[in-house]
User: Fold this.
Amino acid sequence: MAILPIRRAGDPVLREKAKRVRLPVDSSIHRLIEDMWDTMYDAPGVGLAAPQIGVGLRVIVIDVPGHDRVALLNPEIVKRSGERRVDEGCLSVPGFRGEIIRSVKVLAKGIDPYTGKEVRIKAEDDLMAEALEHEIDHINGILYIDYLPGPEALVPLNDAPEVQG
Ligand code: NI
Assistant:
């Protein structure tokens, strides 16, 4: 287990479409997930995607209030609906936040790295819904700043509380 450096915007690994994890997984994937938890909690953050520690695989972890923490392989959004404004931040864009549009309802699926079974996660109007979209964007090479109208929409955090993934 290790706390690894978090890659920042500008690093090409954050812009690649990450590769699917082949199943069944071996222990290297479990080690990767342990490193992701360690790195995420140390940051601190509420979510992390493997490319953020330089690994181009479709793996995400999320731990937000009101939901069990979750690690998913090959996650996908199954369904999303509604629009809401959220104030978002990202561990790969430290010191800033920005207002973007996210979905109200999100249904995602992925593979549980320990059972190998498919799991579905439903979230509505909360941080889990936002984090699922944010982390799945990461494995597709998308950063939340891509949704901002321009660089001037990136707001310095100053002392505002950070919620980042
Ligand atoms: Ni992020």
In short: The chain has one domain: 12-156. The CA atoms of residues 109 and 156 lie 34 Å apart. The mean pLDDT is 95.
